[in-house]
Design goal:
The protein is an all-alpha fold. Helix content is 66%, strand content 0%. The longest helix has 26 residues.
């Protein structure tokens, strides 16, 4: 009986320690946002819109790479608290 328990324990330890990791290369991230010169209020608003779109692209790229929905989850969690 002792040998059976010892054998099962050894199989459990060996089975839990033998992980095989698969590395998958990441896709290319979006381009870095470089703001243009801002001279008027309209230029400021346009650059703000472009920066928000670029942040959204980065968030989407990140979500795809790590297979998560972190940013959407945080947004919905915050919105449900306001309701």
């Amino acid at each position: 009986m002792k040998y059976l328990i010892l054998l099962l324990y050894a199989l459990l330890i060996i089975g839990c320690c033998s992980h095989k990791y698969i590395t998958i290369p990441l896709s290319a991230p979006p381009e870095i946002y470089k703001p243009n010169s801002i001279n008027t209020q309209k230029d400021l608003i346009n650059e703000y819109k472009k920066s928000i779109m670029k942040i959204t692209q980065w968030q989407n790229w990140y979500n795809i790479q790590v297979n998560t929905n972190y940013f959407l989850f945080k947004f919905h969690r915050y919105c449900t608290l306001l309701v």
